[in-house]
Amino acid sequence: MKKKITIAIDGFSSTGKSTIAKLVAKKYNYIYVDTGAMYRAVTYFGMKSKLVSKDVLKSESLILKLKDIKLTFKFNKILGFAEMFLNNVNVEKEIRTLQVSQMVSKVAAISDVRRKLVAEQQLMGVNGGIVMDGRDIGTVVFPDAELKLFMTASSDKRATRRYKELIDKGNTVNFDEVLFNVQERDRLDSTREDSPLMKAHDAIEFDNSDMGIEEQFERICTLVDRKLL
């Protein structure tokens, strides 16, 4: 049996963590888990339940509702990756909006939400052979992961990528709004009390401000291959 490792990819928003994680998982036939989608789904649930909005965050009420939230990933053969399902409903499109992006960091800062999702994430990776991306994978979820990466890039570059992604999906947004969202998420993610975004001491930092996907993929695969020796 071939050795299987755990690959933890952390970093700032819109650094392409999910894109590179999907490619790596596909190459090595590993399970891919987008933890950001899980937090987005809880946020979307809160918004639909009138517990989360720009001016409202009913944390205690949302915590009481956590028992009613069932999150699952279902692989889409046509798309080639797993989509997020909230209580058996596909919400992949709904959770990727700027509106959800504007609220997800606040919801992700709620300790009870983090405890629920971290426990689920750890169960997913109990046997290794997994690529997981998020904010606290290498520091909290899998502190013993064999390979830890930390993705970063300038806020302008990240906002440009995010803006293009949203426009391509048919969303009506302006660049300044997207840039503000990127910078605000950085601030909230890095300063929250519970599991703040930070580079693990043994993580390899990747500044991909001027690095294409192909170059990142090749470099990361070289690192994976070394771990598999």
From TrEMBL:
Its main location: cytoplasm. InterPro entries: Cytidylate_kin (IPR003136), Cytidylate_kinase_dom (IPR011994), P-loop_NTPase (IPR027417). Keywords: ATP-binding, Cytoplasm, Kinase, Nucleotide-binding, Transferase. The gene is cmk. ATP binds at residues 11-19. This is Cytidylate kinase. The keyword Lipoprotein does not apply. Transmembrane segments: none annotated. It comes from Polaribacter filamentus. It holds the Pfam family Cytidylate_kin.
